[in-house]
Amino acid sequence: MISLENELLTEFQVTQSDLDKGKRFQSRNGGRLEQILVNMGCLTEDDLIPLFSKVLGLPIFDASQWQGWKVEELPSEELSFFKAKNALLLSTKEGNKRYIAAKDPLDLELTEYIQNNNLDVEFELAKESDLQAYFYQIQALTDNLPDEDELSGDEEARLRELAVEAPTVNLLNTLITKALARGASDMHLEPYSNKYRVRYRIDGVLHTVENLATKMQMPIITRLKILSGMDIAEKRRPQDGKIEMRIANQELDIRVSALPLNESESIVLRFLKKDAIRYDMSVLGLASDTQLLIQQDLAKTTGVILLTGPTGSGKTTTLYTFLNELNSENVKIITLEDPVEYQLEGINQVHVNPEIGFDFAAGLRSIVRQDPDIIMVGEIRDAETARIALQSALTGHLVFSTVHTNDAASAYTRLLDLGVDEFLLNAALVSIVAQRLARKVCTHCAKPAENIDELFINYPLQKVKEKASLDSITLLEAVGCDQCNHSGYKGRIAINEYLRCDDEIKQIPKNDQFIRQAQAHNDALQRRNLLEDGFYKALLGVTTIDEVLRVAG
Q: Which H or E element spans position 516?
Protein backbone atom coordinates (compact mmCIF):
# COMPACT_ATOMS: atom_id res chain seq x y z
CA MET A 1 0.00 0.00 0.00
CA ILE A 2 1.21 3.51 -0.76
CA SER A 3 2.51 5.35 2.30
CA LEU A 4 0.35 8.25 3.49
CA GLU A 5 3.35 10.14 4.82
CA ASN A 6 5.31 9.68 1.60
CA GLU A 7 2.39 10.97 -0.49
CA LEU A 8 1.98 13.99 1.79
CA LEU A 9 5.65 14.89 1.43
CA THR A 10 6.07 14.24 -2.31
CA GLU A 11 2.74 14.77 -4.07
CA PHE A 12 1.03 17.27 -1.76
CA GLN A 13 4.04 19.43 -0.79
CA VAL A 14 3.55 19.11 2.97
CA THR A 15 6.88 20.00 4.63
CA GLN A 16 8.61 17.58 6.98
CA SER A 17 8.33 20.21 9.73
CA ASP A 18 4.53 20.49 9.33
CA LEU A 19 4.18 16.72 9.12
CA ASP A 20 6.11 16.29 12.40
CA LYS A 21 3.91 18.94 14.06
CA GLY A 22 0.79 17.15 12.89
CA LYS A 23 2.05 13.79 14.18
CA ARG A 24 2.90 15.29 17.59
CA PHE A 25 -0.61 16.76 17.81
CA GLN A 26 -2.05 13.40 16.80
CA SER A 27 -0.10 11.53 19.49
CA ARG A 28 -1.35 13.94 22.19
CA ASN A 29 -4.97 14.42 21.10
CA GLY A 30 -5.78 11.62 18.68
CA GLY A 31 -7.56 12.15 15.38
CA ARG A 32 -6.62 11.48 11.76
CA LEU A 33 -3.39 12.92 10.44
CA GLU A 34 -4.76 14.21 7.12
CA GLN A 35 -7.60 16.08 8.86
CA ILE A 36 -5.17 17.59 11.36
CA LEU A 37 -3.09 18.88 8.43
CA VAL A 38 -6.25 20.38 6.89
CA ASN A 39 -6.94 22.18 10.19
CA MET A 40 -3.33 23.41 10.20
CA GLY A 41 -3.79 24.83 6.70
CA CYS A 42 -1.18 22.50 5.16
CA LEU A 43 -3.83 20.72 3.03
CA THR A 44 -7.16 21.80 1.60
CA GLU A 45 -10.38 19.81 1.69
CA ASP A 46 -10.05 19.39 -2.08
CA ASP A 47 -6.67 17.69 -1.55
CA LEU A 48 -8.26 14.88 0.45
CA ILE A 49 -10.02 13.24 -2.51
CA PRO A 50 -6.85 12.68 -4.62
CA LEU A 51 -4.96 11.80 -1.42
CA PHE A 52 -7.47 9.06 -0.48
CA SER A 53 -7.47 7.89 -4.09
CA LYS A 54 -3.70 7.41 -4.12
CA VAL A 55 -3.32 5.94 -0.63
CA LEU A 56 -6.42 3.69 -0.62
CA GLY A 57 -6.47 2.89 -4.33
CA LEU A 58 -10.07 4.06 -4.72
CA PRO A 59 -11.47 5.56 -7.95
CA ILE A 60 -12.81 9.11 -8.09
CA PHE A 61 -16.48 9.36 -9.03
CA ASP A 62 -17.19 11.25 -12.26
CA ALA A 63 -20.02 13.57 -11.26
CA SER A 64 -20.61 14.63 -14.87
CA GLN A 65 -22.06 11.18 -15.58
CA TRP A 66 -24.97 11.17 -13.11
CA GLN A 67 -27.32 9.96 -15.82
CA GLY A 68 -25.44 6.64 -15.93
CA TRP A 69 -26.34 5.91 -12.31
CA LYS A 70 -29.43 5.40 -10.23
CA VAL A 71 -29.61 6.88 -6.73
CA GLU A 72 -31.28 4.27 -4.55
CA GLU A 73 -34.44 5.38 -2.83
CA LEU A 74 -34.10 5.33 0.96
CA PRO A 75 -36.37 6.17 3.88
CA SER A 76 -36.09 9.84 4.82
CA GLU A 77 -34.15 9.01 8.00
CA GLU A 78 -31.51 7.03 6.11
CA LEU A 79 -31.34 9.65 3.35
CA SER A 80 -30.66 12.29 6.03
CA PHE A 81 -27.89 10.05 7.41
CA PHE A 82 -26.21 9.75 4.00
CA LYS A 83 -26.56 13.48 3.39
CA ALA A 84 -24.93 14.24 6.75
CA LYS A 85 -22.08 11.90 5.82
CA ASN A 86 -21.68 13.42 2.33
CA ALA A 87 -22.40 10.10 0.70
CA LEU A 88 -24.80 8.59 -1.83
CA LEU A 89 -25.91 4.99 -2.28
CA LEU A 90 -25.82 4.34 -6.04
CA SER A 91 -26.38 1.47 -8.40
CA THR A 92 -25.92 0.97 -12.13
CA LYS A 93 -28.99 1.38 -14.30
CA GLU A 94 -29.10 -2.41 -14.63
CA GLY A 95 -28.88 -2.74 -10.85
CA ASN A 96 -26.11 -5.35 -10.95
CA LYS A 97 -23.53 -3.24 -9.10
CA ARG A 98 -23.85 -1.02 -6.05
CA TYR A 99 -21.57 1.76 -5.00
CA ILE A 100 -21.21 4.34 -2.28
CA ALA A 101 -19.94 7.69 -3.52
CA ALA A 102 -18.52 9.37 -0.43
CA LYS A 103 -16.31 12.27 0.55
CA ASP A 104 -14.70 10.31 3.41
CA PRO A 105 -14.43 6.53 2.99
CA LEU A 106 -12.85 6.23 6.46
CA ASP A 107 -15.86 7.66 8.30
CA LEU A 108 -16.51 5.20 11.16
CA GLU A 109 -20.30 5.61 11.26
CA LEU A 110 -20.53 5.10 7.49
CA THR A 111 -18.51 1.88 7.61
CA GLU A 112 -20.62 0.65 10.56
CA TYR A 113 -23.80 1.32 8.57
CA ILE A 114 -22.45 -0.77 5.69
CA GLN A 115 -21.56 -3.64 8.02
CA ASN A 116 -24.84 -3.54 9.98
CA ASN A 117 -26.90 -3.62 6.77
CA ASN A 118 -24.72 -6.26 5.08
CA LEU A 119 -24.28 -4.02 2.04
CA ASP A 120 -22.19 -5.43 -0.80
CA VAL A 121 -20.87 -2.13 -2.17
CA GLU A 122 -17.77 -0.64 -3.72
CA PHE A 123 -16.46 2.75 -2.64
CA GLU A 124 -15.91 5.69 -4.98
CA LEU A 125 -14.60 9.06 -3.83
CA ALA A 126 -16.70 12.14 -4.53
CA LYS A 127 -16.24 15.84 -3.85
CA GLU A 128 -18.55 17.39 -1.28
CA SER A 129 -19.67 20.05 -3.80
CA ASP A 130 -20.76 17.34 -6.28
CA LEU A 131 -22.67 15.44 -3.61
CA GLN A 132 -24.37 18.55 -2.23
CA ALA A 133 -25.41 19.66 -5.73
CA TYR A 134 -27.11 16.33 -6.23
CA PHE A 135 -28.87 16.50 -2.86
CA TYR A 136 -30.19 19.94 -3.84
CA GLN A 137 -31.61 18.44 -7.03
CA ILE A 138 -33.31 15.67 -5.06
CA GLN A 139 -34.86 18.28 -2.78
CA ALA A 140 -35.96 20.35 -5.78
CA LEU A 141 -37.68 17.37 -7.37
CA THR A 142 -39.67 16.73 -4.20
CA ASP A 143 -40.68 20.40 -3.89
CA ASN A 144 -43.14 20.14 -6.81
CA LEU A 145 -41.57 22.87 -8.89
CA PRO A 146 -43.76 23.88 -11.85
CA ASP A 147 -42.77 23.55 -15.49
CA GLU A 148 -42.62 26.71 -17.58
CA ASP A 149 -45.85 25.88 -19.41
CA GLU A 150 -47.65 25.17 -16.13
CA LEU A 151 -47.12 28.67 -14.69
CA SER A 152 -50.29 30.70 -14.27
CA GLY A 153 -50.92 34.42 -14.04
CA ASP A 154 -49.20 34.47 -10.66
CA GLU A 155 -46.00 33.17 -12.22
CA GLU A 156 -43.82 36.19 -11.37
CA ALA A 157 -44.55 35.96 -7.66
CA ARG A 158 -44.04 32.19 -7.70
CA LEU A 159 -40.80 32.48 -9.68
CA ARG A 160 -39.43 35.05 -7.25
CA GLU A 161 -40.33 32.74 -4.41
CA LEU A 162 -38.58 29.77 -6.03
CA ALA A 163 -35.48 31.85 -6.83
CA VAL A 164 -34.73 32.53 -3.15
CA GLU A 165 -35.43 29.03 -1.84
CA ALA A 166 -32.52 27.00 -0.52
CA PRO A 167 -32.29 24.39 -3.33
CA THR A 168 -31.96 27.09 -6.00
CA VAL A 169 -29.59 29.33 -4.04
CA ASN A 170 -27.34 26.49 -2.91
CA LEU A 171 -27.20 24.79 -6.29
CA LEU A 172 -26.31 27.98 -8.16
CA ASN A 173 -23.67 28.93 -5.56
CA THR A 174 -22.17 25.45 -5.85
CA LEU A 175 -22.01 25.65 -9.65
CA ILE A 176 -20.31 29.06 -9.57
CA THR A 177 -17.85 27.98 -6.88
CA LYS A 178 -16.93 24.86 -8.86
CA ALA A 179 -16.50 26.92 -12.03
CA LEU A 180 -14.07 29.28 -10.32
CA ALA A 181 -12.18 26.40 -8.70
CA ARG A 182 -11.66 24.84 -12.14
CA GLY A 183 -10.51 28.13 -13.65
CA ALA A 184 -13.52 28.51 -15.96
CA SER A 185 -13.95 31.77 -17.86
CA ASP A 186 -17.63 31.11 -18.69
CA MET A 187 -20.51 28.95 -17.50
CA HIS A 188 -23.24 27.88 -19.94
CA LEU A 189 -26.71 26.78 -18.77
CA GLU A 190 -28.88 25.42 -21.54
CA PRO A 191 -31.76 22.98 -22.17
CA TYR A 192 -30.50 19.92 -24.02
CA SER A 193 -32.13 16.52 -24.69
CA ASN A 194 -34.63 16.74 -21.81
CA LYS A 195 -31.89 17.83 -19.43
CA TYR A 196 -30.60 21.16 -18.18
CA ARG A 197 -26.95 21.01 -19.21
CA VAL A 198 -24.18 22.92 -17.41
CA ARG A 199 -20.92 23.48 -19.25
CA TYR A 200 -17.74 25.31 -18.22
CA ARG A 201 -15.37 26.95 -20.70
CA ILE A 202 -11.90 26.16 -19.41
CA ASP A 203 -8.89 27.42 -21.35
CA GLY A 204 -11.18 28.13 -24.30
CA VAL A 205 -12.78 24.67 -24.49
CA LEU A 206 -16.28 23.73 -23.28
CA HIS A 207 -16.68 20.82 -20.84
CA THR A 208 -20.00 19.35 -19.71
CA VAL A 209 -19.93 19.14 -15.91
CA GLU A 210 -23.55 18.64 -14.85
CA ASN A 211 -26.90 17.55 -16.22
CA LEU A 212 -29.47 19.06 -13.87
CA ALA A 213 -33.10 18.14 -13.43
CA THR A 214 -35.18 20.08 -15.97
CA LYS A 215 -37.39 21.27 -13.10
CA MET A 216 -34.45 23.37 -11.89
CA GLN A 217 -34.05 25.52 -15.00
CA MET A 218 -36.85 28.01 -14.32
CA PRO A 219 -35.79 28.74 -10.71
CA ILE A 220 -32.13 29.07 -11.74
CA ILE A 221 -32.91 31.33 -14.72
CA THR A 222 -35.14 33.47 -12.52
CA ARG A 223 -32.53 33.80 -9.78
CA LEU A 224 -29.86 34.84 -12.28
CA LYS A 225 -32.21 37.40 -13.84
CA ILE A 226 -33.04 38.88 -10.44
CA LEU A 227 -29.37 39.06 -9.39
CA SER A 228 -28.30 40.63 -12.69
CA GLY A 229 -31.14 43.16 -12.92
CA MET A 230 -33.04 41.60 -15.84
CA ASP A 231 -36.79 41.42 -16.36
CA ILE A 232 -37.88 37.96 -15.17
CA ALA A 233 -41.14 38.18 -17.11
CA GLU A 234 -39.36 38.77 -20.44
CA LYS A 235 -38.65 35.47 -22.21
CA ARG A 236 -38.89 36.52 -25.86
CA ARG A 237 -35.99 38.97 -26.20
CA PRO A 238 -32.27 38.67 -25.41
CA GLN A 239 -31.20 40.38 -22.19
CA ASP A 240 -27.88 41.30 -20.60
CA GLY A 241 -27.05 41.98 -16.98
CA LYS A 242 -24.28 42.09 -14.43
CA ILE A 243 -23.69 40.57 -10.99
CA GLU A 244 -21.07 41.81 -8.53
CA MET A 245 -20.14 39.39 -5.79
CA ARG A 246 -17.31 38.31 -3.50
CA ILE A 247 -16.28 34.66 -3.39
CA ALA A 248 -13.35 33.26 -1.39
CA ASN A 249 -12.07 36.79 -0.66
CA GLN A 250 -12.03 37.55 -4.37
CA GLU A 251 -13.94 40.39 -6.02
CA LEU A 252 -15.88 39.07 -9.01
CA ASP A 253 -17.93 40.62 -11.80
CA ILE A 254 -20.23 38.24 -13.65
CA ARG A 255 -21.65 39.30 -17.03
CA VAL A 256 -24.92 37.46 -17.65
CA SER A 257 -26.50 36.95 -21.07
CA ALA A 258 -29.96 35.42 -21.63
CA LEU A 259 -30.94 34.21 -25.11
CA PRO A 260 -34.44 32.87 -25.92
CA LEU A 261 -34.38 29.42 -27.54
CA ASN A 262 -37.07 27.29 -29.10
CA GLU A 263 -37.49 25.81 -25.63
CA SER A 264 -36.66 27.90 -22.54
CA GLU A 265 -33.55 30.13 -22.54
CA SER A 266 -29.80 29.76 -22.76
CA ILE A 267 -27.90 31.59 -20.02
CA VAL A 268 -24.19 32.33 -20.23
CA LEU A 269 -22.16 33.71 -17.33
CA ARG A 270 -18.76 35.29 -18.00
CA PHE A 271 -16.52 35.54 -14.95
CA LEU A 272 -14.36 38.66 -14.69
CA LYS A 273 -11.97 38.35 -11.76
CA LYS A 274 -11.01 41.89 -10.83
CA ASP A 275 -7.55 41.18 -9.43
CA ALA A 276 -6.71 37.93 -11.20
CA ILE A 277 -5.13 39.18 -14.44
CA ARG A 278 -1.61 40.57 -14.70
CA TYR A 279 -1.20 42.98 -17.58
CA ASP A 280 2.45 42.16 -18.08
CA MET A 281 4.25 41.48 -21.37
CA SER A 282 5.93 38.42 -19.87
CA VAL A 283 2.53 36.85 -19.11
CA LEU A 284 1.29 37.14 -22.73
CA GLY A 285 3.81 34.59 -23.92
CA LEU A 286 5.06 36.66 -26.85
CA ALA A 287 8.14 35.25 -28.55
CA SER A 288 11.21 37.38 -27.79
CA ASP A 289 11.62 38.56 -31.40
CA THR A 290 7.94 39.54 -31.68
CA GLN A 291 8.05 41.30 -28.31
CA LEU A 292 11.07 43.33 -29.39
CA LEU A 293 9.27 44.53 -32.52
CA ILE A 294 6.16 45.47 -30.54
CA GLN A 295 8.24 47.33 -27.93
CA GLN A 296 9.69 49.41 -30.78
CA ASP A 297 6.16 50.25 -31.95
CA LEU A 298 5.02 51.19 -28.45
CA ALA A 299 7.84 53.73 -28.30
CA LYS A 300 6.17 55.72 -31.11
CA THR A 301 3.99 58.73 -30.32
CA THR A 302 1.67 58.57 -33.34
CA GLY A 303 0.10 55.92 -35.51
CA VAL A 304 -2.35 53.02 -35.28
CA ILE A 305 -1.53 49.59 -33.87
CA LEU A 306 -4.18 46.96 -34.60
CA LEU A 307 -4.94 43.61 -32.97
CA THR A 308 -6.85 41.10 -35.08
CA GLY A 309 -8.49 37.79 -34.32
CA PRO A 310 -11.86 36.20 -33.57
CA THR A 311 -13.92 36.76 -30.44
CA GLY A 312 -12.24 35.19 -27.42
CA SER A 313 -8.71 35.35 -28.80
CA GLY A 314 -7.43 37.63 -26.02
CA LYS A 315 -7.24 40.85 -28.05
CA THR A 316 -8.55 43.06 -25.22
CA THR A 317 -6.14 41.55 -22.69
CA THR A 318 -3.24 42.17 -25.06
CA LEU A 319 -4.34 45.77 -25.65
CA TYR A 320 -4.66 46.32 -21.89
CA THR A 321 -1.12 45.00 -21.53
CA PHE A 322 0.17 47.46 -24.13
CA LEU A 323 -1.64 50.33 -22.38
CA ASN A 324 -0.28 49.24 -19.00
CA GLU A 325 3.21 49.29 -20.49
CA LEU A 326 2.69 52.93 -21.56
CA ASN A 327 0.75 54.10 -18.51
CA SER A 328 2.55 56.84 -16.56
CA GLU A 329 1.99 60.25 -15.00
CA ASN A 330 3.26 61.87 -18.19
CA VAL A 331 0.59 60.63 -20.60
CA LYS A 332 -3.20 60.74 -20.77
CA ILE A 333 -4.83 57.50 -21.93
CA ILE A 334 -8.52 57.24 -22.82
CA THR A 335 -10.27 54.03 -23.86
CA LEU A 336 -13.62 53.44 -25.55
CA GLU A 337 -15.01 50.01 -24.70
CA ASP A 338 -18.21 48.01 -25.05
CA PRO A 339 -18.30 47.13 -22.21
CA VAL A 340 -15.48 48.13 -19.84
CA GLU A 341 -14.40 44.70 -18.62
CA TYR A 342 -11.57 45.57 -16.22
CA GLN A 343 -10.76 48.85 -14.51
CA LEU A 344 -7.19 49.99 -15.17
CA GLU A 345 -5.70 52.34 -12.61
CA GLY A 346 -4.71 55.73 -13.99
CA ILE A 347 -6.54 55.25 -17.30
CA ASN A 348 -9.77 57.00 -18.35
CA GLN A 349 -12.16 54.28 -19.51
CA VAL A 350 -15.41 55.10 -21.29
CA HIS A 351 -18.34 52.70 -21.75
CA VAL A 352 -20.02 53.33 -25.11
CA ASN A 353 -23.80 53.01 -25.32
CA PRO A 354 -25.11 52.70 -28.90
CA GLU A 355 -28.74 52.71 -27.66
CA ILE A 356 -28.45 56.42 -26.86
CA GLY A 357 -26.36 57.25 -29.94
CA PHE A 358 -23.03 57.16 -28.09
CA ASP A 359 -21.21 54.60 -30.25
CA PHE A 360 -17.49 54.27 -30.99
CA ALA A 361 -17.54 56.98 -33.65
CA ALA A 362 -19.37 59.47 -31.41
CA GLY A 363 -17.09 58.60 -28.52
CA LEU A 364 -13.99 59.15 -30.64
CA ARG A 365 -15.19 62.57 -31.73
CA SER A 366 -15.64 63.50 -28.07
CA ILE A 367 -12.44 62.14 -26.58
CA VAL A 368 -10.09 63.77 -29.12
CA ARG A 369 -11.21 67.05 -27.53
CA GLN A 370 -9.99 65.73 -24.15
CA ASP A 371 -6.34 66.14 -25.23
CA PRO A 372 -5.32 62.47 -24.93
CA ASP A 373 -1.90 61.17 -25.86
CA ILE A 374 -3.04 57.57 -26.32
CA ILE A 375 -6.45 56.29 -27.42
CA MET A 376 -7.83 52.78 -27.39
CA VAL A 377 -10.96 51.96 -29.39
CA GLY A 378 -12.42 48.59 -28.40
CA GLU A 379 -13.31 47.62 -31.96
CA ILE A 380 -13.46 49.16 -35.41
CA ARG A 381 -16.89 48.12 -36.72
CA ASP A 382 -17.75 50.76 -39.32
CA ALA A 383 -16.25 53.20 -41.78
CA GLU A 384 -16.74 56.30 -39.61
CA THR A 385 -14.97 54.79 -36.61
CA ALA A 386 -12.13 53.60 -38.85
CA ARG A 387 -11.67 57.02 -40.49
CA ILE A 388 -11.72 58.95 -37.20
CA ALA A 389 -9.28 56.50 -35.58
CA LEU A 390 -6.82 56.73 -38.48
CA GLN A 391 -7.15 60.51 -38.75
CA SER A 392 -6.56 60.81 -35.00
CA ALA A 393 -3.24 59.06 -35.51
CA LEU A 394 -2.29 61.66 -38.12
CA THR A 395 -3.00 64.48 -35.66
CA GLY A 396 -0.54 63.32 -33.03
CA HIS A 397 -2.16 60.40 -31.19
CA LEU A 398 -1.08 56.81 -30.67
CA VAL A 399 -4.20 54.72 -31.32
CA PHE A 400 -4.89 51.08 -30.47
CA SER A 401 -7.86 49.10 -31.75
CA THR A 402 -9.08 45.69 -32.93
CA VAL A 403 -10.69 44.27 -36.05
CA HIS A 404 -12.09 40.81 -36.72
CA THR A 405 -9.90 39.15 -39.37
CA ASN A 406 -8.18 35.79 -39.68
CA ASP A 407 -4.63 37.10 -40.12
CA ALA A 408 -2.66 40.32 -39.98
CA ALA A 409 -2.63 41.21 -43.69
CA SER A 410 -6.41 40.76 -43.95
CA ALA A 411 -6.86 43.82 -41.72
CA TYR A 412 -6.00 45.95 -44.76
CA THR A 413 -8.70 44.38 -46.91
CA ARG A 414 -11.20 44.59 -44.05
CA LEU A 415 -10.64 48.33 -43.62
CA LEU A 416 -10.74 48.88 -47.38
CA ASP A 417 -14.07 47.00 -47.50
CA LEU A 418 -15.37 49.44 -44.86
CA GLY A 419 -14.56 52.29 -47.25
CA VAL A 420 -11.28 53.62 -45.81
CA ASP A 421 -8.99 55.21 -48.40
CA GLU A 422 -5.77 53.36 -49.16
CA PHE A 423 -3.63 56.49 -48.67
CA LEU A 424 -5.02 56.85 -45.14
CA LEU A 425 -4.07 53.26 -44.28
CA ASN A 426 -0.56 53.76 -45.64
CA ALA A 427 -0.13 56.99 -43.71
CA ALA A 428 -1.50 55.87 -40.32
CA LEU A 429 -0.90 52.16 -39.73
CA VAL A 430 2.19 51.24 -37.70
CA SER A 431 1.72 47.50 -37.27
CA ILE A 432 -0.87 44.73 -37.12
CA VAL A 433 -0.72 41.79 -34.72
CA ALA A 434 -2.93 38.75 -35.32
CA GLN A 435 -3.57 36.56 -32.30
CA ARG A 436 -5.01 33.25 -31.14
CA LEU A 437 -4.95 31.60 -27.73
CA ALA A 438 -3.55 28.09 -27.45
CA ARG A 439 -3.71 25.93 -24.35
CA LYS A 440 -0.43 25.29 -22.57
CA VAL A 441 0.41 21.65 -22.05
CA CYS A 442 0.16 20.54 -18.40
CA THR A 443 3.66 20.35 -16.94
CA HIS A 444 2.59 17.68 -14.42
CA CYS A 445 1.58 15.00 -16.90
CA ALA A 446 2.94 15.82 -20.37
CA LYS A 447 5.13 13.21 -21.99
CA PRO A 448 7.60 13.41 -24.90
CA ALA A 449 5.96 13.02 -28.30
CA GLU A 450 6.50 9.56 -29.76
CA ASN A 451 6.04 10.44 -33.45
CA ILE A 452 8.54 13.27 -33.86
CA ASP A 453 9.84 12.05 -37.23
CA GLU A 454 6.28 11.83 -38.57
CA LEU A 455 5.46 15.33 -37.31
CA PHE A 456 8.51 16.76 -39.09
CA ILE A 457 7.38 15.07 -42.31
CA ASN A 458 3.76 16.26 -42.10
CA TYR A 459 4.33 19.85 -40.90
CA PRO A 460 6.92 22.58 -41.67
CA LEU A 461 8.65 22.14 -38.30
CA GLN A 462 12.14 22.12 -39.80
CA LYS A 463 11.48 25.48 -41.47
CA VAL A 464 10.23 26.92 -38.16
CA LYS A 465 13.24 25.51 -36.31
CA GLU A 466 15.62 27.12 -38.80
CA LYS A 467 13.73 30.45 -38.80
CA ALA A 468 14.00 30.63 -35.01
CA SER A 469 17.58 29.25 -34.93
CA LEU A 470 16.63 26.59 -32.39
CA ASP A 471 19.48 24.29 -31.38
CA SER A 472 17.24 21.83 -29.53
CA ILE A 473 13.52 21.06 -29.41
CA THR A 474 11.03 19.66 -26.86
CA LEU A 475 7.92 18.22 -28.51
CA LEU A 476 5.34 17.03 -25.98
CA GLU A 477 2.02 15.18 -25.95
CA ALA A 478 -0.89 15.96 -23.64
CA VAL A 479 -1.85 13.19 -21.21
CA GLY A 480 -4.20 14.37 -18.46
CA CYS A 481 -4.10 14.30 -14.65
CA ASP A 482 -5.86 15.70 -11.58
CA GLN A 483 -3.89 18.96 -11.88
CA CYS A 484 -5.42 19.76 -15.28
CA ASN A 485 -8.86 18.15 -14.81
CA HIS A 486 -7.64 15.33 -17.08
CA SER A 487 -7.56 17.60 -20.12
CA GLY A 488 -3.79 17.50 -20.59
CA TYR A 489 -3.66 21.31 -20.67
CA LYS A 490 -3.56 24.08 -18.09
CA GLY A 491 -3.52 27.80 -18.87
CA ARG A 492 -3.22 29.51 -22.24
CA ILE A 493 -0.58 31.33 -24.23
CA ALA A 494 -0.84 33.73 -27.16
CA ILE A 495 0.35 32.74 -30.62
CA ASN A 496 0.90 35.72 -32.89
CA GLU A 497 1.61 36.93 -36.39
CA TYR A 498 3.32 40.32 -36.62
CA LEU A 499 3.12 42.57 -39.68
CA ARG A 500 4.96 45.89 -39.63
CA CYS A 501 3.48 48.42 -42.02
CA ASP A 502 6.87 49.42 -43.43
CA ASP A 503 7.72 51.11 -46.74
CA GLU A 504 7.59 47.82 -48.66
CA ILE A 505 4.08 47.04 -47.38
CA LYS A 506 2.92 50.58 -48.21
CA GLN A 507 4.15 50.20 -51.79
CA ILE A 508 2.30 46.93 -52.42
CA PRO A 509 -1.01 47.65 -54.23
CA LYS A 510 -3.96 46.79 -51.99
CA ASN A 511 -5.63 44.50 -54.53
CA ASP A 512 -6.58 40.82 -54.44
CA GLN A 513 -2.86 39.88 -54.47
CA PHE A 514 -1.98 42.00 -51.44
CA ILE A 515 -2.42 39.34 -48.74
CA ARG A 516 -0.20 36.83 -50.57
CA GLN A 517 2.48 39.45 -51.26
CA ALA A 518 2.42 40.77 -47.67
CA GLN A 519 2.83 37.22 -46.33
CA ALA A 520 5.74 36.63 -48.72
CA HIS A 521 7.36 39.86 -47.50
CA ASN A 522 7.02 38.73 -43.89
CA ASP A 523 8.42 35.31 -44.74
CA ALA A 524 11.46 36.91 -46.38
CA LEU A 525 12.09 38.80 -43.13
CA GLN A 526 12.02 35.45 -41.23
CA ARG A 527 8.84 36.40 -39.40
CA ARG A 528 6.39 33.65 -38.53
CA ASN A 529 2.72 33.44 -39.46
CA LEU A 530 0.16 32.27 -36.88
CA LEU A 531 0.61 28.58 -37.59
CA GLU A 532 4.39 28.84 -37.56
CA ASP A 533 4.40 30.76 -34.26
CA GLY A 534 2.24 28.02 -32.80
CA PHE A 535 4.65 25.36 -34.10
CA TYR A 536 7.53 27.40 -32.64
CA LYS A 537 5.94 27.28 -29.18
CA ALA A 538 5.22 23.57 -29.61
CA LEU A 539 8.92 23.00 -30.42
CA LEU A 540 9.74 24.78 -27.14
CA GLY A 541 7.44 22.39 -25.24
CA VAL A 542 4.94 25.08 -24.26
CA THR A 543 2.00 23.59 -26.16
CA THR A 544 1.38 20.65 -28.51
CA ILE A 545 1.11 20.26 -32.27
CA ASP A 546 -2.49 19.05 -31.89
CA GLU A 547 -3.44 22.19 -29.97
CA VAL A 548 -1.79 24.48 -32.51
CA LEU A 549 -3.69 22.80 -35.33
CA ARG A 550 -6.93 23.17 -33.36
CA VAL A 551 -6.64 26.94 -33.00
CA ALA A 552 -4.63 27.98 -36.06
CA GLY A 553 -4.66 25.07 -38.51
A: helix 514-524
